[in-house]
Specification:
single chain, about 130 residues, mainly beta, 7-stranded mixed β-sheet, 4-stranded antiparallel β-sheet, 11 strands, globular
Amino acid sequence: QVQLVESGGGLVQAGDSLRLSCAASGRTFNYLPMGWFRQAPGKEREFVAGITWNGSSTAYADSVKGRSTISRDNDKNTVYLQMNSLKPEDTAVYYCAADPNFRSVVPTTTQGYAYWGQGTQVTVSS
């Protein structure tokens, strides 16, 4: 089992930056691919970014590419999502997720992840 706790969300203005954090505990975090997803009201949960266990490979949704950076610190069992130039359409609940499989690719769908945090709200005002 992996327990995930997100933090860092909040209310910001368009153009601002935020850094989300996800603290993991439980199973061997260091070997698990990690991802960030988001879900806006009335919409499906969508992939935002993902990173392999050692950070050698990352993936981003087109909507955030160039504005966001995912990273991880395995010594701290934490994965981060730095988001810059935030837009109102970035408003959503952001979820951290862990892939239970030891692999060198980043899943980009919800089916690729088995463990989820409770989410943190990000609201971007115009």
